[in-house]
Amino acid sequence: MKIKLITFVVFLFSILSFSQIKEFNYDSEIKKQFTVFFDNIKDKKIENAVDFIYPKYLDLITREHMINILNFSYNNPAFKIEIQHFKIDNIDKPELIHNEYFSIATYSFEMKFKVDLNSIPNAESIKQKVKDAMISKYGKENVATFDNNDSYMINAHMKTCAISNDGKEWKFLILDKKYKSELINILPQRILDKF
């Protein structure tokens, strides 16, 4: 009886020790939370999506301004956007820098984008600007036009930075070289160097 009790205690102790040593699965938490963030944008639940944005960035540009930007992009009657085939391609191991965890994740999706030129003044000049902007952002090889250049099929490959204080609750910043100068005072240099 004593041997069974001692064996049980040793077994229990080793399970508890292993569970404390076992590293937390950052990938699954980042993937789960970024998917919720992305789904909120896709479903045009803009205020819910903004809850997932890194607070230091919102301190810089304000929450209201971010809501306005996202509403202009995704709830604009002049644009019809349909996002498909979203997937997270890679998640880097988080780095602890200045008491915060930072992880770069790459993701991809396909997006159908149609411009309702009837609702836009100077439609022809806007049409070319939209096409140029799409090619500049996603690359010529990732942008296909159809319907007389009024519609686009975009194969997007992007990066986000996942940031957390505790490694469990993550906030996100979409990484775009065009906005790198805005992020200089928000992200550590080691992270800035990665995009």
Describe the structure.
The chain is an alpha+beta fold and 195 residues long. The protein has one domain (25-192): Nuclear Transport Factor 2, Chain: A (Roll). It is built from 8 helices and 6 strands; from the N terminus they run αααααβββαβββαα. The protein has helices at 2-21, 26-42, 46-50, 55-61, 63-74, 123-138, 180-183, 189-192; strands at 79-91, 95-97, 100-115, 143-146, 151-164, 171-175. Strands 1, 2, 3, 4, 5 and 6 form a 6-stranded antiparallel beta sheet that branches. Strand 4 and strand 5 (151-164) form a beta hairpin. The longest helix is centred in the N-terminal third of the chain and has 20 residues, at 2-21.
Write the layout of secondary structure elements.
Blueprint: H1 2-21, H2 26-42, H3 46-50, H4 55-61, H5 63-74, E1 79-91, E2 95-97, E3 100-115, H6 123-138, E4 143-146, E5 151-164, E6 171-175, H7 180-183, H8 189-192
Antiparallel strand pairs: 1-3, 2-3, 3-5, 4-5, 5-6
What's a concise summary of this model?
With 195 residues, this protein is an alpha+beta fold. It has helices at residues 2-21, 26-42, 46-50, 55-61, 63-74, 123-138, 180-183, 189-192; strands at residues 79-91, 95-97, 100-115, 143-146, 151-164, 171-175.
Q: Count of helical segments?
A: 8
CATH superfamily, by name, is NTF2-like, domain 1
Shape: elongated
Q: Give the percentage of residues in beta strands.
A: 25-35%
Q: List the quaternary state of the chains.
A: single chain
Strand and helix order: HHHHHEEEHEEEHH
Helix content: 40-55%
As a whole number of angstroms, the C-alpha radius of gyration is 22 Å
The low-confidence runs, each spanning 5 or more residues with pLDDT under 50, are: 7-22
CATH topology descriptor: Nuclear Transport Factor 2, Chain: A
For the secondary structure, the number of strands is 6
Largest sheet: 6 strands, antiparallel
N/C terminus separation = 62 Å
| CATH hierarchy, class | Alpha Beta
Q: What is the averaged pLDDT score? A: 85
Classify the secondary structure makeup into a structural class.
alpha+beta
What's the CATH architecture name?
Answer: Roll
- Could you say how many structural domains there are in total? 1
